[in-house]
TrEMBL record, chain B:
Subcellular location field: Cell inner membrane
Topology in the lipid bilayer: Peripheral membrane protein
GO terms for MF: ATP binding; ATP hydrolysis activity
SMART domains per UniProt: AAA
Protein's recorded name: ATP-binding cassette domain-containing protein
Cellular component, GO annotation: plasma membrane
Keywords: ATP-binding, Nucleotide-binding, Transport
Domain called ABC transporter: residue spans: 6-251
Organism: Lichenibacterium ramalinae
Biological process annotations from GO: peptide transport; transmembrane transport
Family annotation (PANTHER family): D,D-DIPEPTIDE TRANSPORT ATP-BINDING PROTEIN DDPF-RELATED, TRANSPORT ATP-BINDING PROTEIN
Main location: membrane
Amino acid sequence: MAEPAPPMPAPTISQAPLPQAPVLNVEGLTVRFAGAPAAVVEDVGFSVARGRTLAIVGESGCGKSVTSLALMGLLPPAARVAGRAVFAGGVDLLDMPPRARADLRGDRVAMIFQEPMTSLNPAFTIGDQIAESVVRHRGATARDARARALAMLDLVRIPAAAERLDAYPHEMSGGMRQRAMIAMALANDPALVIADEPTTALDVTIQAQILALLAGLQRDTGTAVILITHDLGVVAEVADDVVVMYAGRAVEGGPVSALFDDPQHPYTIGLMGAMPALGRRTGRLATIPGAVPLPADMPPGCRFATRCPFADARCAAERPPVRAFGAGHGAACWHAPIEGFGVAA
Amino acid sequence: MTAPLLEVRNLARDYGGGRGGAPRALDGVSFVLEAGTILGLVGESGSGKSTLARLVAALDRPTAGHVLLDGDDLFALPGRALVRRRRDFQMVFQDPYGALDPRQRVGRIVAEPLHLLAPRPGRAERAALVAAALEAVGLRAGDAGRFPHAFSGGQRQRIAIARALVTRPRLLVADEAVSALDLSVQAQVLNLILDLRDRDGIAVLFITHDLGVVDAVCDRVGVMYRGRIVEAGPVAAVRDRPFHPYTALLAAAEPTIPPVPRVPTSAPPLAGDAADWAGCVFRPRCPLATGRCRAEAPLPRALPAAPGRSVACHHAEAMAGPG
């Protein structure tokens, strides 16, 4: 029964029927660092449409942040990037002259980072930092850029915005700094925002405010959002589609509801069982035994094979293709569908 | 009636240098932790939970109040006696990368607290205790010869827990001990903590910002806000019907699968608004606040209908509802 693996097409596994042409379409994204034994991101594909939020979820080292940095062109020179990332049906983000990319970054494509304290410059006021990108990309006068910065602080509901314009980052709380980061990212009406763990450093009540703020702004502006996170709860709250990454590969993807109701990949199932959640007390939590293999020890087949309860010889030897399980829902597993192995309710 | 394993009475801690009227980092905190149970303390940044952990572990001295272990006030003990008592309570810290000396072998790291034992164990006995501690956390005795860098994050946190267990303590103080870990690894460490309670009868003061984690492993929970425990009780009862508006706010903010409709959360007060410190600490964010909440700080109290729970809110009856 062991058919040879079909030739690997770029597995674009988050392909819910899109309402319109995608803002970003990524195919076969592969990132390899010179001298490293394995690619840190391998053959990852997804797309995200206007007004939609795509979450990329996974644990430390799965490649989710490298994916976002590759799209932004922020990886160090030692990184070798292959694949395509077509933005707005036109340019390829992975193959652009540095100058053109710099023009795009902070303008049509913006990024929100995890730690607002280290991503904001402590030596400049919030207003100056927001105005800078408006001057750089829109050629605005200092006066117009300052007016734009004020409007943005109002938009992200920073109280007493006119006074906060002249505040330094250290004078603001973590939640307020993250609001300022969002204001900066949105200042030029980007078509795509990449948010890398935007609420991870924040308290849970502040996180709820920031996520609600992002969702509201997205409704008003139609910005597409790629949300990088490790938190399945955040994914369920705000994302439309999700890609689950493990050890540099996308193992499962699809609409959020399909993925949470009917996860197909053993890694996704394991993650959901390991999540402590309110009101789901079952005594012991499900665990995924072992740890992610080191790059030098990556199995040639499925990278999850070393920890998977269903793994057999084929899993270790042959990379599983992405197979579809309903509209836009796909998983890369030889054993899917796995019957009778739902997540404990 | 024997004394409980741990009793904290009216504990308070000021950090110096505050301007007049600055709030205490910890104020009037009292609770009891019985042997073989896990008490979760949950709260956001600045709630005083780490200050409390350091006081319970006697790594800092309180401004006022008492920490009693088996009825003995830790801060009334002479210095040497306190050092000897440390074998009974050990601490596990958040960051498994920072908490282990990268230049020491695991065996030496885990053996470090053994100098608290009197008489000091000999070399062979030390090795046996280290091996037992490593095996208790699911590592191998042979791992004693390796260095921390050879281990993953979850394994390092197990090493930190093994170090805390090597003196066979009766109380573990875990300050955000799983917060830095990935989900699959976090589940391994949480299960280990449940095993320690069920197999060895160890009590755990489990400090975290994550309500889901509290729900998974704790028997009782205390909810902290601005240096006070605003609500305490059995985990399931507090989760199913919070009596304090802050507990309800915290639970509503927790992202869940499937998502629940969001209750709009009130913005926290801006720092430095000194007038806000009158009365109840939660008043500036509270949807139920009235004039009484400004005039009079609520003290923890029991509701007649809910034995085993306490709440510091003038409006707890309204939260508890009829029946």
